[in-house]
Write a structure and sequence with these properties.
There is one protein chain. The protein is of the alpha+beta class. It has 5 helices and 10 strands, in the order E-E-E-E-E-E-E-E-E-H-H-H-H-E-H. The strands form 3 sheets. It has a 4-stranded antiparallel sheet. Strands 7, 8, 9 and 10 form a 4-stranded antiparallel sheet that branches. The protein has a two-stranded antiparallel sheet with strand order 2-5. The N and C termini lie far apart (94 Å).
Length: 198
């Protein structure tokens, strides 16, 4: 967002992907759409980028239903929907969206175990978090397009335990295949011996 002051009447070009707010004597006279506009004397112009952007929340430690702390990050796709509200309603409008995302995330994970979070968080939490973010952003001129649970990091001990479990399952599967092969070989030998006896 940039601000320029004009002492004399002049023209201003507003580019695609931005809006410009024209202030005269501290009051917003109009929101300028893309194109060329003639400005009033003593106009002060504030440009606002309205293109889609992606912000990622800082990693947040969240307690699950089974008492495990998982670290989660959420990506927020958003854009400015109302340039005047975005500039005039709050000093940092996106912080309100961040807060809504963090609270919705905590509330959603409160009823899930660590294993459920690791398996289903990306698929099931997006809509809940997006609704909360949209409700917080709309009055501030922020349109939240979507949210995505980006990373779910389990504690080191739990990751190690899951790795051991996967390794044990793989070993068991390999041993089962070896036993099946040995059984098939023994059966083949028994059939051969029976044919010889006959």
């Amino acid at each position: 967002m940039s601000i320029r002051k004009f002492l004399f009447p002049t023209t201003l070009t507003v580019h695609t992907g931005e809006r410009a707010l024209e202030y005269v004597d501290g009051t917003c006279r109009r929101v300028l759409e893309p194109g060329r506009h003639r400005l009033a004397r003593r106009a002060q112009v504030r440009r606002v980028l309205v293109l889609d952007r992606v912000e990622t929340t800082a990693p947040q430690d969240v307690l699950t239903a089974d008492g495990v702390t998982v670290r989660v990050t959420v990506a927020i796709r958003w854009a400015v929907s109302d340039a005047q509200r975005y500039v005039e309603s709050a000093a940092e409008p996106l912080t309100f969206v961040y807060l809504a995302v963090q609270v919705a995330l905590r509330d959603a994970l409160l009823d899930l175990t660590a294993e459920e979070v690791a398996r289903r968080a990306r698929r099931t939490l997006g809509a809940t978090i997006t609704d909360a973010a949209r409700a917080a952003g709309e009055p501030l001129g922020v349109a939240v397009r979507s949210t995505l649970v980006k990373d779910v990091v389990l504690p080191h001990e739990l990751r190690a335990a899951y790795a051991e479990l996967v390794t044990a399952k793989a070993r068991g599967q390999a041993q089962l295949e070896v036993a099946r092969a040995e059984t098939a070989a023994l059966r083949s030998l028994a059939n051969g011996a029976k044919l010889l006896d006959d």
